[in-house]
Amino acid sequence: MDGIQKLWNFFETDLGETPISLDWSACGRWLAVINVDSTVMIVDTMTDNKLKSWKAHDDGALALTWHPKLSLFATSCQGGMVKLWEVEDDLTINEVSAIELTPNSGSSWVELLKWSPDGKYLSIGNGNSVTLSTVSGEISDSFSFPNGTVAAIDWHPKGSLLAIAGYGGVLIYNVLEPKEKPIVMERKGSLLSLSWSPDGKFILAGCQDNAVALWRFRTRKDAQMSGFTYKPLQLTWISRGKRLLTGGTRELVIWPFDKKGPEGRDPEMRSFHEHAICAISATPDGQSIASGCRYGRIAIWGATNSPEPKGWAELDGRVEHLLWSSVKNSTTLAASSRQGSLYLFDASTII
Predict the structure, then answer these.
(1) Which of 133, 134, 242, 245 has its CA 20 to 30 A from that of 316?
(2) pTM of the model
């Protein structure tokens, strides 16, 4: 790794348990992390101090996500409960509402939370359905997934269409017309992750059979990208949706998604990691990429063609999460390890 700059963290803390999820506030000041035991910790990056730590649920935690515009975030757990929390101007944190969901398909686990792009609705995946809640915690509508448990959800960039994935393919509902029948995109087997391209032209899903399924939304034409060693759960867009980053191998794989699409074209491969990539994140402007592997090593790449990373860092175990700050032009990267450590890195010297 001669010639590649090593990054040192400016913040590190022991979370005590394995982190389930982490997310940045829209303003980029606060980073929230939730552990398997439902302990939430918020870091104030203006002071590099822990703002607060508390137990959000009585049951094990499953998800956390910040609102795209407000100082509000949601958490969920195994007991069918979703809670909304708000950071006040005086930096106190208050519970706004608690949403108790009825178990679906015999399961009370709420594993999926996703805000609509405009922040009007929170989509909540619970068993074989997705429920919509407002920012005040009021239930709006519910959409079913008859084939079984919902595995992934994503919103169309304009916010009116909600895609739900699981066994057998993807269902797309119009939230403005909730009684309409969904659009069906079929695919044999189980889908595990889901992503709508920023221009709304493609829908992609990471699959159980180590492939990525894709559909052109307008024509419904389907295809797949294969050759992955592991399940390619990571689907990250850069270059305003013109390129896609995937995990599932030791190489960082970058697929072309211009007007021609990826069908019949070879992806760009970047080698650095000696173990499979399990976390990917891109800066808001798409100019820098972070990849993390099962061994605990992180690489920082430029978005343009480059045979090697600009920098690297090492955690104390497998990289669980990587997420650049949500603020435009920010160079702060959050990372967590399976061992329960949380790190903040400043990559300003290399990007």
Answers:
(1) 245
(2) 0.95
